[in-house]
Amino acid sequence: MRVVIGEDNALLREGLVLLLTSAGHEVAAVAASGPEVLPALLAHRPDAAVLDVRMPPSFRDEGLRAALAARREIPGLPVLVLSQYVEETYAVELLGGGASGVGYLLKDRVGRVDEFLDALERVAAGGTALDPEVVTELLTRRRNDPLDALTPREREVLALMAQGRDNATIAQLLVVSDRAVSKHIGNVFAKLGLPASDSGHRRVLAVLAYLNGG
């Protein structure tokens, strides 16, 4: 996998390069500031990008803006963004452009090498990867919306879907059958009012409904 990294912290940037190359991936380019990200992505057209949300010069949302701009220029470009803290607005905005091939992780997750690499590979394959802590905080903020109709188990299933987990993995983590997971997901779709005719995108729509509180 060819990857472009956007990260202003030199120690973390070099750590990411070492981690990815050690795992057999190629780092096509690195960017240390927001304005450097988009040109690097357009020049190298990588299989995936790993970008810090806040980068110079303003340390606000340069990385996120670069990710959104890159996905407009290169539709479907897999992007995994990293953030120091849970920032709901950024997660919603990233996924609002289409939840295929996007991820949002807290930087602490990079230290958990297997989890980080698994998330990157899921994003590169066109899936989603949301940090469990992001999902938990988003869930606790929801009040008086369609998600209130979900049972505790259905909320667990939706949370794992939001992390980008497939049915088999959800079944394994919850220690239930694949059939039970499919039933719970069907109930989630029905309660969130997702159209049955849109079967190819219902999982994405469910994640978006989850993040936006229905």
UniProtKB/TrEMBL annotation:
> The Response regulatory domain covers which part of the protein?
2-122
The record's section on CDD domains has: LuxR_C_like, REC_NarL-like
What is the protein name given in its UniProt record? Answer: Response regulator transcription factor
**Residue(s) carrying 4-aspartylphosphate:** D52
The source's domain of life comes to Bacteria
Q: Which PANTHER family match?
A: TRANSCRIPTIONAL REGULATORY PROTEIN NARL-RELATED (PTHR43214:SF24), TWO-COMPONENT RESPONSE REGULATOR (PTHR43214)
Q: Where is the HTH luxR-type domain?
A: 143-213
**InterPro entries per the record?**
CheY-like_superfamily, NreC/VraR/RcsB-like_REC, Sig_transdc_resp-reg_C-effctor, Sig_transdc_resp-reg_receiver, Tscrpt_reg_LuxR_C, WalR-like
Organism, scientific name: Streptomyces decoyicus
Any idea which UniProt keywords this protein has? DNA-binding, Phosphoprotein, Transcription, Transcription regulation
